[in-house]
Amino acid sequence: IGDYVTFELVFKSCPLDKRAIANHTYTTIVNNFPSLSKSFTYDDVSVEIEHLKVKVTLKLAPSSFDHANSLNRSAKQ
Questions:
Q1: How far is CA 4 from CA 31, 50, 51, 57, 77, in A?
Q2: Hey, which end of the chain has fewer CB within 10 Å, N or C?
């Protein structure tokens, strides 16, 4: 079982549905982070919307999660 990465987006209005947000998230990861997308599928993206709060959860393989963390650390330096 892979690790999970969660981020939240808060909108003033939210005309998009869960499927559109999941599709955009998946496409962005595949197009911009090919090293993360090797074992990543559309089913690894889950979206919850409550009022104007959007929660996106990504299921990543442990090696992909470690790689994503290393990219984040590099960006902060």
A1: 20, 20, 23, 6, 24
A2: C
List the pLDDT tens digit at each of the 77 positions of the chain: 456 666 666 666 667 788 988 998 898 888 887 777 677 889 999 998 887 788 888 887 766 667 666 765 544 44
Give the three-state DSSP class for 32.
helix
Question: H or E segment at 71?
Answer: helix 62-76
Q: How far apart, in whole angstroms, are the C-alpha atoms of residue 9 and residue 52?
A: 8
Distance separating alpha carbons of residues 46 and 55, to the nearest angstrom: 8
